[in-house]
Design brief:
The chain is mostly helical. It has two domains: 1-69, no CATH class; 74-256, Rhomboid-like fold (Up-down Bundle), CATH 1.20.1540.10. It is 46% helix and 5% strand. The protein has seven helices and five strands, in the order E-E-H-E-H-H-H-E-E-H-H-H. A hairpin with a 6-residue loop joins strand 1 (8-9) and strand 2 (16-17).
Length: 259
């Protein structure tokens, strides 16, 4: 009777992994749809003492079993922490949205604010939705391609979204005040989502179907696109621009695939 292979080779990172797992423990790539069934006693004529057990490839000294040492989404977490710290500073009082890095129109339109604007929020609901999306799709991009592509997509999509909203003069009011401008990470969040989605669909077209839950992705996409209808602070122009920039950057993500 045929036996399962002693190991399989991950097509993404090249490591030998157990045939009894469905995802590579080193890079997260799906290696098979389902694990093979274990043989029942009495069906295998090979003596139990002589059977070789499948083994994972040797771990490096700095590795934990099943987790690649550079596979944790550290930079994604850092982006979220920075945004939360800015909110805590604003909540403590004494610092205005403009002083925290937000884009206050028409006065504060320096180019550097396009980078800081996505970290500043005036609505906790808005911040929660966008940061959840950043956490989900940022983590997947960082685990597969590394921290640099993740950071590049976040900053480029977020900054482009802010710049487009300023250029279109579609700033939104901040709270109950008469001040208006551009804040928040909806452009960055949609950029990460679209970059990940473009790469995933291109991989499926090449025959590398990663079997991701696209229904959940569509829900995220719909919520982020419709967010400006529920929260005035969220800019539709910034979100759509960030989505377009992220989608374009999704075409070059495979160049950063980890080997």
């Amino acid at each position: 009777m045929s036996q399962p292979d002693l190991f399989v080779v991950c097509k993404n990172c090249g490591n030998e992994v157990s045939p009894y797992v469905t995802e590579c423990p080193y890079c997260g790539q799906r290696v098979r749809k389902r694990a093979p069934k274990l043989e029942r006693g009495g069906e295998d004529s090979e003596p139990r003492a002589k059977r070789r057990r499948p083994r994972l490839s040797g771990l490096r000294a700095e590795e934990m079993e099943g987790i690649a040492p550079d596979g944790r989404p550290v930079v994604t977490g850092a982006l979220i922490v920075v945004s939360l710290l800015v909110t805590l500073v604003l909540a403590a009082g004494g610092v205005s949205l403009g002083e925290a890095g937000g884009i206050v129109m028409p006065d504060d339109q320096e180019a550097w604010r396009y980078v800081t604007g996505p970290f500043v929020h005036d609505s906790l609901a808005y911040q929660f939705v966008t940061l959840v999306a950043v956490g989900v799709f940022g983590s997947m991009i960082e685990r597969r391609f590394g921290w640099f592509p993740l950071l590049a997509v976040f900053l480029a999509a977020g900054a482009a979204g802010c710049a487009a909203a300023v250029a279109a003069d579609v700033g939104t009011p901040f709270g109950d005040s008469s001040v208006y401008g551009v804040l928040g990470a909806n452009g960055a969040a949609l950029g990460l989502l679209c970059a990940w989605l473009v790469d995933d669909r291109r991989a499926a077209a090449r025959g590398d179907d990663r079997e991701n839950d696209l229904l959940g992705v569509r829900v995220f996409l719909a919520v982020l696109l419709l967010l400006p209808l529920a929260i005035e602070e969220a800019s539709a122009v910034a979100g759509i621009t960030g989505a377009v920039v992220g989608a374009l950057m999704g075409f070059v993500l495979p160049a950063f695939t980890r080997r």
